[in-house]
């Protein structure tokens, strides 16, 4: 039977293969997008963006990272990890940095967080459950806000997105139920057959981790969702600022549901960092509001630059500072 280290190694190898495939898919999508729109026109649109407003959007993106870091800190507190918010913030930034170039995709990001958050081997399961809960809270609040702002904006040509948001919300409610409401048993319920396949020690640790979430379920669920909504609302302002830097005359209300749509499609594990699908979503969502194709693509590329690349580079700086401060240890 493969050891834990061997399974981790295979996970990284498989993750690397998947990342190469995603890079290929992203390259194909971007090739057809720029063939349709024109790379030079997109570059010209990006070059004409207001740099001062983009810096402000970057500052907003940092605030978003602080809020989501505090949310994860609260979720790890439930598991008894008691991680400082600053440490969680630094790890989140570092993960963004390594995700820019390391193979393995989400598997690598998960392993990095587990390595940095785990003080003892026995804490691994608690860290994984905390990270899973954090992702569910972020996605659930994104979908709920997408539903809400869609109904407020009522964009008639985009009725399909109402169904997408509703289905995604429903999908997120299922794990939320088991995380914070219904304390499951490894011997009963629909999850029992899956849990019985795990080793007794892992099954016991996983059960205890879920039970800890349920014991403080209501309080933690409300606070996590509140922080998630806060982070997304701040993020909406960041997207609106990026739109303003390009001269796009769209209201905060429209940007709010468009952002939810763009972020939701980037969760599809078919490209690297959402490249390609983000641009396709921007084209589809923005064309109904008179936004030119080159501006829509420029908006999407600037969103990627400000919220992913720039935040990742900031994570690289924090990692370098930590390395120097710790004397290379």
Topology:
Blueprint: H1 4-37, H2 39-47, H3 51-78, H4 85-99, H5 105-117, H6 124-153, H7 159-180, H8 192-195, H9 200-215, H10 217-245, H11 252-266, H12 277-286, H13 293-325
Helix pairs in contact: 1-5, 2-13, 3-4, 3-6, 3-10, 3-13, 4-5, 4-13, 5-6, 6-7, 6-10, 6-11, 10-11, 11-12, 12-13
Account of the 3D structure:
It is a single chain. The protein has 329 residues and is an all-alpha fold. The chain has one domain (4-325). It has 13 helices and no strands. The chain has helices at 4-37, 39-47, 51-78, 85-99, 105-117, 124-153, 159-180, 192-195, 200-215, 217-245, 252-266, 277-286, 293-325.
Which labels suit this protein?
329 residues; globular; mainly alpha; single chain
Summarize the structure.
By secondary structure, the chain is mostly helical. It is built from 13 helices and no strands.
Question: From the helix content, strand content and strand pairing, which structural class follows?
Answer: mainly alpha
Q: What is the number of beta strands?
A: 0
For the record, the count of structural domains works out to 1
**Number of distinct helices:** 13
Task: Please give the largest β-sheet.
Answer: none
Overall pLDDT, averaged?
83
Outline type: globular
Helix content: over 70%
Task: Quote the distance from N terminus to C terminus.
Answer: 34 Å
How much of the sequence is in beta strands?
A: under 5%
Low-confidence segments? none
Gyration radius from CA atoms, angstroms: 21 Å
């Amino acid at each position: 039977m493969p050891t834990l280290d061997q399974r981790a190694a295979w996970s990284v190898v498989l993750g690397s293969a998947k990342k190469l495939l995603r890079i290929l898919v992203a390259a194909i999508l971007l090739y057809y997008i720029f063939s349709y729109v024109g790379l030079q026109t997109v570059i010209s649109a990006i070059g004409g963006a207001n740099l001062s407003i983009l810096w402000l959007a970057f500052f907003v993106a940092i605030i978003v990272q602080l809020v989501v870091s505090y949310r994860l800190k609260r979720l790890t507190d439930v598991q008894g990890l008691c991680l400082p918010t600053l440490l969680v913030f630094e790890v989140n930034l570092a993960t963004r940095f390594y995700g820019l170039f390391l193979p393995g995709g989400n598997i690598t990001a998960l392993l990095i967080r587990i390595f940095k958050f785990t003080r003892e081997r026995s804490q691994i399961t608690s860290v994984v459950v905390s990270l899973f809960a954090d992702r569910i809270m972020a996605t659930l609040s994104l979908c709920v806000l997408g539903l809400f702002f869609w109904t407020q904006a009522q964009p008639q040509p985009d009725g399909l997105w109402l169904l997408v948001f509703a289905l995604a919300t429903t999908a997120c409610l299922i794990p939320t139920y088991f995380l914070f409401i219904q304390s499951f048993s490894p011997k009963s319920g629909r999850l029992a057959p899956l849990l019985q396949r795990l080793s007794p020690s892992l099954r016991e640790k996983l059960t205890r981790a879920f039970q800890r979430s349920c014991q403080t379920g209501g309080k933690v669920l409300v606070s996590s969702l509140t922080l998630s909504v806060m982070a997304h609302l701040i993020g909406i302002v960041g997207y609106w600022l990026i739109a303003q830097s390009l001269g796009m005359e769209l209201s905060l209300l429209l940007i709010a549901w468009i952002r939810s749509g763009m972020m939701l499609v980037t969760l599809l594990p078919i490209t690297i960092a959402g490249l390609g699908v983000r641009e396709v979503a921007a084209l589809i969502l923005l064309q109904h509001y008179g936004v030119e194709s080159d501006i829509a693509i420029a908006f999407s590329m600037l969103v990627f630059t400000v919220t992913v690349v720039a935040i990742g580079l900031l994570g690289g700086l924090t990692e370098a500072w930590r390395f120097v401060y710790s004397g290379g240890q």
